[in-house]
Amino acid sequence: MGGGAVVAALGLGLVLTNRASNVINFAHAATGTFLAYAYFEFRDRGDLVLPVLGLPDRIRIIPTPTIGTAIVVLALYAAALGVVIHLLVFRPLRSASVLARIVASLGLFLYFQELIRNRFPTAGAAVITRFPVLPDGPVEILGVGVSANRLWLALVVVVVAAALAATFRWTRFGLVTRASAESDKGALLIGLRPDLVAAANWALATVLAGFAVVLIEPIAGLDGATTSLLVVPALAAALVGRLTSFAWTAAAGLGIGVVQSLILGWTVQPEADWLPDWLPAAGLQQVIPVVVILAALTLRGDVLPGRGAIVDRAPKPAPTPGRWWPIGPVVLATVGVLGALVLDAGDRRGLVVSLAFSVLGLSVVVICGYAGRISLAQLALAGISGFTVVHVADGSVPFPFDLLAGALVATAVGVAIGAATSRLRGMTFAVATLAIAVALEQLVLASPWLSGGAAGLTAPRPSLFGIDLGAQSSGVDDVRPAFVVMVAVVVALCFAGVLALRRSELGLRWLALRANERAAAAGGVDVGRARLVAFGVSAALAGVSGALSAYSTSTLSPASFTVFGSLVVVALVFLGGVSTAWGAVVAALIVQGGLLTSLGSGDGVPHLYAWAGVALVLAANFAPEGILGLARAARDRFGRARSTDGADAPGGGGGAGRGASRGDGATAAAGAGSAS
Q1: What is the DSSP string of 270-309?
Q2: The pLDDT of residue 405
Q3: For residue 320, what is the DSSP state?
């Protein structure tokens, strides 16, 4: 019941933010987790932890705060943080695309994850005493002992849900919130202040998130990674309430928590000895939110948007590879071969990390940049492929057939996910794939049979025609040049395939879906089939990346394929430029442990993912086409400036016209060349 109460409380916060800003905040639980850590430290020591990197970590407020003081400070701190998040992150994105809002939310998630790791390290830090807020003595109900804090927490959630429902139904604040959500301009015209109303809702939602995690700590503990992922069951509860109903959200959250607790309790009973050893009992709990999310979204989803549906603003067209596009894969292969020959062992490892990551980035480009569907499960697919390669190679299947087997299994899983989510699009598709990624991580990748559990499995050593292509020399921790060459060739082939797909008829169908599904269907595109093919191709690329990761290490562990890593992949590719294959290359260069890290200090950028989160928020607002989009825009401005200068030159006349024409042609040729 306690777990269900915190799920319900977080779900109520998601409903509030969606009502206020039409945003599903993936960072909602991560924000609450940071606030809970900050509360317990303030309660124990009187230090207020600041949420801005670059400022002092902590400031002393009072030496010995009471519980009442700590609660008041938490409420004020959380409200202020919620207002700041609204004003700086989501308010500028009210008219932005769904992708931009999702990316900003993911950026916020990354920021808080890195902030928690930095401000509250688990190793070497002084122990913080976490004083409980609610009474935790035992209470007997119908002969069954229950902790009092679970009952109190459930009661608090029910009261809060009832108060919110009454407020939004019968008070002016609720009416104003609904009016502002319908139309900002309309609300302004009748004298309302939608920004102030939205800020108040964000403040209230953040307060709920902070208190929910604080109250659940004595029951479920506090962990920066796992507690932040409580957003998945919270999203399931909010979706049952259609992101509008507080009552249904609270009921669904309590129900999800109760079912998860029953499953966990049942799996540890002696009577459950028939449960297979390869099936993680804890992972079974994560199936419930996935089922609820898919059911809630599928029942309300349509194969195509209705005629009255609000169509998201069309994204800018993806750059078309020019006629010289085959040069790009050749350049990648050449760089890989040269790197294998001239770099030392440490830098070769960084090159391999970047090369393998670039294939994973290509999978994001295909599903998101080309087909317009935001998948957050790519790294889980890579993990399934990687462990498949290990098992197949152990069965004496040689390279490259073991790589192909891993890619095929990942493709099959990807097509299954695509079929299960065929009625979803935009924000709801991202929510579903996030839930599926969590379930795959904790149910499939954590399976001792597949992955060997936390210890992992010994990675295979590829060879071709008797040539050893293994990553490491016997007994030496290095990266052999032959392995780097093999990886570079595989990456170049994948890159060439993605560029060829972009130029093909299938690529044009994907772009038509990305722009407008109804228009694409009217033009003869089989929408369902095109979606499945896109997810299948994307999953195959993720599978190739997982296979390369398996080859590059001595022991493959499930820790390499976390949900947090999936979010990092999408974030970095968006920063590079998600609409072009070269965006995956840019993302691969800046990834932690990649080539730029190796060529630099070797330690990487301090707080890289926090700064990546900040960059994502800025990119969502000011550069939705990423780094390469900024470069293309600068090139186009330079070309127009040169054309204008030529037209204004003395004696230009007709020659100016001819010069302008040549300039336009040169610009187009440059665009084609850069796209390739």
Answers
A1: GGGTTS-TTS-HHHHHTHHHHHHHHHHHHHH--SS--TTS
A2: 93
A3: P
Q: How many CB atoms lie within 10 A of CB 506?
A: 16
**Cα gap 256→259, rounded to integer Å:** 5
Give the pLDDT score at 307: 43
Q: For residues 30 and 313, give the distance between their C-alpha atoms in angstroms, rounded to a whole number.
A: 29
- State how far Cα 310 lies from the chain centre: 25
Q: How many residues does the chain have?
A: 676
- Structure confidence at residue 410 (pLDDT): 95
**pLDDT value at position 664?**
38
Scan for tokens 């069309």, then name that residue.
314
Strand partners, 174: none
Cα dist from 472 to 73, 551, 598, whole Å: 54, 10, 18
> CA 659 → CA 642, 644, 653, 671, distances in Å?
10, 10, 10, 18
Amino acid at 334: T
Residue ranges in the chain modelled with pLDDT below 70: 1-2, 123-129, 134-147, 149, 178-192, 266-279, 281-283, 300-319, 322, 473-477, 600-606, 645-676
Long-range residue pairs from 92-97, CB within 8 A, at least 24 positions apart, any chain: 92/621, 93/23, 93/620, 93/621, 94/21, 94/22, 94/184, 95/313, 96/313, 96/620, 96/621, 96/624, 97/312, 97/313, 97/315, 97/624
Task: Cis check for the bond before 400: say yes or no (omega within 30 of 0).
Answer: yes
Question: For residue 193, what are the CA distances in angstroms to 20, 184, 185, 198?
Answer: 12, 9, 10, 9
How many other C-beta atoms lie within 10 A of the C-beta of residue 145? 8
- The 10s digit of each residue's pLDDT in 28-66 is 999 999 999 999 989 888 889 888 877 888 888 888 888
User: Are the C-beta atoms of 200 and 11 separated by less than 8 Å?
Assistant: no
At residue 431, the pLDDT reads 86
Identity at 60, one-letter amino acid code: R
pLDDT of amino acid 670: 34
Contact between residue 139 and residue 151 where contact means Cβ atoms under 8 Å apart: yes
Six-digit token pair at 448? 């001792």
The answer to whether the CB of 512 falls within 8 A of the CB of 519 is yes
CB 5 within 8 A of CB 157: yes
First-to-last alpha carbon distance for the chain, in angstroms, is 56
Q: How far apart are CA 365 and CA 506, in angstroms?
A: 15
pTM (two decimals) = 0.82
Predicted local confidence at residue 63, as pLDDT:
83
Q: How many CB atoms lie within 10 A of CB 395?
A: 9
Rounded to an integer, what is the distance from CA 386 to the centroid of its chain?
20
What is the predicted pLDDT for the residue at 657? Answer: 41
CA dihedral 417, 422, 428, 431 (to 10 degrees): 0
